[in-house]
Amino acid sequence: TSIASMQERRSTLGAAVLNELLYAVGGFDGSTGLASVEAYNYKVNEWFFVAPMNTRRSSVGVGVVEGKLYAVGGYDGASRQCLSTVEQYNPSTNEWSYVSDMSTRRSGAGVGVLSGQLFATGGHDGPLVRKSVEVYDPGTNTWKQVADMNMCRRNAGVCSVNGLLYVVGGDDGSCNLASVEYYNPVTDKWTLLPSNMSTGRSYAGVAVIHKPL
User: Fold this and answer.
1) Same domain flag for 125 and 165
2) Residue 213 above 60 pLDDT?
């Protein structure tokens, strides 16, 4: 059987899984940035709308921490500015609320979760592509800076494997990147993998299946 289509067209959306539902967050429909959010129930093969965000967000990064879904930065298309704001979705109340802002504006940030904390890596603010990284602690509702990546990256894929956070590809504003680097929270250091991907990839989807030992 074929998988049901979303209710809206979306590019540069954020996608995450929470409570066995696949959420499609914000994005761009070809003419405007979207605040709408929909969820996919694989058991019945249906998409349904949930509460929209407070802000339109394309090129948005998302992550799930402790049963909440976070939408990080992006671009609202209205102010023509990249965003530093962050929103949290509570599935039990079907409500979005703002949490603390990041220290910098980031659109196209690579967002991942490691040890119960939300990482925002790179991204850009206008033409400036960042290598800086900040981490959100939901327990204290605060962001803190950690070590910079080795490369400036936006629109990179992010995943965590075996206690390390991997940032895969992206682009530096002029070319797509084949390099991959990982963050070790114990040493607060980023390390480039010795081997690159076979091709540069921006906007790649990254997932972990059957974690390697």
Assistant:
1) yes
2) no
3-state secondary structure of 18: strand
Domain residues for the domain of 68 are 1-99
The mean pLDDT value for 89-113 works out to 98
* Residue among 89, 116, 121, 87 at smallest CA distance from 104: 121
Task: Give the per-residue pLDDT at 50.
Answer: 99
Pair 115, 79 in one domain: no
Contact partners, residue 91, CB within 8 Å, separation at least 6: 18, 19, 21, 50, 67, 68, 69
Asked if 53 and 86 count as a contact pair (C-beta separation under 8 A), the reply is no
d(CA 78, CA 58): 11
**pTM > 0.85:** yes
Task: State which of 99, 120, 137 marks the end of a domain.
Answer: 99
Residue 212 belongs to a domain:
no
Q: How far lies 104's CA from each of 35, 57, 85, 120, in Å?
A: 21, 16, 9, 10
One-character DSSP codes across 88-147: EEETTTTEEEEEPPPSS--BS-EEEEETTEEEEE--EETTEE---EEEEETTTTEEEEEP
pLDDT confidence band for 210 (50 / 70 / 90) = confident
